[in-house]
Amino acid sequence: MEEMEEELKCPVCGSFYREPIILPCSHNLCQACARNILVQTPESESPQSRRASGSGVSDYDYLDLDKMSLYSEADSGYGSYGGFASAPTTPCQKSPNGVRVFPPAMPPPATHLSPALAPVPRNSCITCPQCHRSLILDDRGLRGFPKNRVLEGVIDRYQQSKAAALKCQLCEKAPKEATVMCEQCDVFYCDPCRLRCHPPRGPLAKHRLVPPAQGRVSRRLSPRKVSTCTDHELENHSMYCVQCKMPVCYQCLEEGKHSSHEVKALGAMWKLHKSQLSQALNGLSDRAKEAKEFLVQLRNMVQQIQENSVEFEACLVAQCDALIDALNRRKAQLLARVNKEHEHKLKVVRDQISHCTVKLRQTTGLMEYCLEVIKENDPSGFLQISDALIRRVHLTEDQWGKGTLTPRMTTDFDLSLDNSPLLQSIHQLDFVQMKASSPVPATPILQLEECCTHNNSATLSWKQPPLSTVPAEGYILELDDGNGGQFREVYVGKETMCTVDGLHFNSTYNARVKAFNKTGVSQYSKTLVLQTSEVAWFAFDPGSAHSDIIFSNDNLTVTCSSYDDRVVLGKTGFSKGVHYWEITVDRYDNHPDPAFGVARIDVMKDVMLGKDDKAWAMYVDNNRSWFMHNNSHTNRTEGGIAKGATIGVLLDLNRKTLTFFVNDEQQGPIAFENMEGLFFPAVSLNRNVQVTLHTGLPVPDFYSSRASIA
């Protein structure tokens, strides 16, 4: 069960969860840790002020800091808020997990409540340290989050199963062995910490101290807390809301926000989700079993490679020694090649063993955690985490597919030494590449009429010569780097046609192909020269876009069905050259602020472009614009957009810069520099905006002349 331990630790404090709560994103936090990473937001962003202004909000509002006045006029990108009410402005600090924490301006008043239950400052928000989603708390504060009692139960059983002695919970560095436990404080103490933190006087004199073992038993026998509704704290959960996927009480159905939702019996949904998780675990268990057998196979391969290597080296040394002094220098060269092949095979197999061992340990840990969760008898607590666990189990099972359990290397050394040549031919001595003596296949022929390029893709076709009698088992297609560099393999397989994507625009590539069988490889075909397009023609990509994006006009026009910002990428990525495209605004209602720019393929699709570190964007409203990357806003510039406006995006990867234009005028300075890697055109918008993409455009003349002068 040790592999499950990471599932049971808080991402903030790194210790086992204590009083864990479930965030809306399905991640967990200790209640005390959640309070430690709270930040205060401006009054205008609080749920109360939003309701007063008439805008509809949910119980927990995800932060939208796009237009909040968090930044100075110089756009430093580092914000600060005031402290609590009537407190002077206090700069924010960063916690170890990267979340900005804003300390109170004055010491909090004395209270008898624990830190986790103390009142939460108004207008507070919390950022999940795992998925980095932020949300604003309502009047209930942290009490509005359900407690994960299932996780508490699993942690209790895990800690009880460990035979190690109980440690003091208050030692700062190396915890000492606990000598007593206070039943009222529910804390284990060593003798020094008991004298320092729990003296036998005052109110603490009435506390009962017991031996650690007895304290562990009393913890295990303590009754489980009854599950209560977060909205109606005096009511127990009695039903399950299918639409919201959460347990609810009868008052939620009669007068709360679930009154019109579909509900089902709590016990029935509990059994259904347990059954679904069990079925998902069956498939994952089979994969884990196969992985264990596969690891045994790989370990046996290591031994076989070692034995074959020793045998092959001995044979090679014996043959080379027979050629006396004239063969000594050549013998060293051949041994070096064998050792290189030996190390290569071992490295490939050991790397695969390491990779599969890590993946199997993670899979086993998830399985053990899920099995412990299934043992829980708390329906509502189980249902709070079952959906997320089912998704994780299916995702982990899928990761074991796609050839993961196939060895990447054979154990044989397909080399043999021919020692028949005369002494005058010793300098030509070399390995015969295969043990078999059958001929290699004929050189394949590139079919020029079927080879072509489109945008930054190249399609090549080839065939065997008409009179060839030696069959080919496969082909190896090689391309250079588009700059006269070395060739590299881009395809290995049985097909006689291949399309290579992701090439550089406006570049010249050389291509060649060769055939192979068990005997060896053929000669290379003639080299074919290919020229990629000077400019890029592309459309928006429905495959990678958010599900709320609506496409039309052959995927050149997009809008959105949601009031929240959603991201859509272009189909073509750029890593070299200068590229320019434009976007026209077809519809612009209620002054939204769409964002335009570039992004990595794995950018977040459900937030405004530029919120994470995978996007570089300019977002603009009807009056002004800002540049944004990794949620840092800079260079506010006057001048906005309206219906009919044209936004130009210029990505110059030769100079590593990104520049924006509005109606043929440059908007602000150069937006971003040091742009390196693969970038995709990107847009984020909501239902109030519709835009159309225009590609295949040359670089503006004024920019070309400016670049030539520079």
TrEMBL record:
Gene behind the chain: TRIM9
Domain COS: 374-432
PROSITE patterns: B302_SPRY, COS, FN3, ZF_BBOX, ZF_RING_1, ZF_RING_2
GO molecular function, one term: zinc ion binding
Enzyme nomenclature, EC number: 2.3.2.27
Keyword Glycosyltransferase: no
InterPro entries registered for this protein in UniProt: B30.2/SPRY, B30.2/SPRY_sf, Bbox_C, ConA-like_dom_sf, COS_domain, E3_ligase_FN3/SPRY, FN3_dom, FN3_sf
Record flagged with keyword Repeat: yes
Listed name of the protein: E3 ubiquitin-protein ligase TRIM9
Fibronectin type-III domain segment(s): 440-535
Domain B30.2/SPRY: 517-702
Domain B box-type: 163-212, 224-266
EC top class, as a word: transferase
UniProt cross-references to SUPFAM superfamilies, sorted A to Z: B-box zinc-binding domain (SSF57845), Concanavalin A-like lectins/glucanases (SSF49899), Fibronectin type III (SSF49265), RING/U-box (SSF57850)
Record-annotated RING-type domain positions: 10-50
Cell compartment(s), UniProt: Cell projection, Dendrite; Cytoplasm, Cytoskeleton; Cytoplasmic vesicle, Secretory vesicle, Synaptic vesicle
Coiled-coil segments on the chain, per record: 288-344
UniProt KW keywords: Cell projection, Coiled coil, Cytoplasm, Cytoplasmic vesicle, Cytoskeleton, Metal-binding, Phosphoprotein, Repeat, Synapse, Transferase, Ubl conjugation, Ubl conjugation pathway, Zinc, Zinc-finger
Catalytic activity: S-ubiquitinyl-[E2 ubiquitin-conjugating enzyme]-L-cysteine + [acceptor protein]-L-lysine = [E2 ubiquitin-conjugating enzyme]-L-cysteine + N(6)-ubiquitinyl-[acceptor protein]-L-lysine
Subunit structure: Interacts with SNAP25.
Pathway membership: Protein modification; protein ubiquitination
